[in-house]
Amino acid sequence: MTTRDKIASRAHDMYIRLGIRSVSMDDVCRELGISKKTLYKEFENKEDLISAALSTSLEEDMAMCATFKAEASDSIDEMFRLTSYILKRLRALSPSAIHDLRKYYPMQWKLMNDFHHDFVRGMVSENLERGIKQGVYRDDLNVDIVSRFYVLKANIIVDETYFPLDEYRRDLLFQEHIMLHMHGIVTKDGRERLHEFKEQFSS
Question: Where do the domains of the chain lie?
Fold first, then answer.
C-alpha cells in the first residue's frame, strides 16, 4: 500500500467516526503522525483527500462484493453477506458524515451516487438473474426495474427530507429496505431462507 493509500484509508476512518467537516488536515496529520509537508505532498487540499478516501472505500466495497458473490451458497446468501457488511458500516458511521458529504462536497457526493447507480445496480441485477435461475427468486421479475427500485430506495434512506438524522437510524432504515426488497422477490422456497436472514440482523 502506498503512502497516499495509507493516508486516504486512515482519513476515511476518521471521516466515518467523526464526520467530515470536524476533521481538519491538521487532525489527519496528528492521527497518522506525519508532517503537513508529507500530507500536502500527496494531496493538494482537503477535497482531494476526501475524493481519495471515498475512492478507497468504494474500491474496498467492490472487492467485498466480489468475495460475497464467490463464497455465497446462493443469491440469498450473497445478499445476506452484503447486508451484514453494510449494516456494520452504517453502525460505525457518524450521523454527520453523510450530511457533510452531501451538503459541502457535491462532487464527491456525485461520485458516490454514480457508484450506486452503476456498480450497485449492476450487482443487484446479477444477483436477481442468478436467484431466478436458482429458483429462490420469482421468475416473473423485471430485473431492470427491480434493480433500479433497489438503488432508488437505498438513496432515500440518506435523504433527510424523509428521514431526519435525529429521528432515524440509518442501519434500521436499511434493514427495512432490504427486507422489503427480499420479501418482494423470493419464491416460496426462498422465503424459508429469509427467517435465517432476518435473525442475523441482530448478531
Answer: 54-202
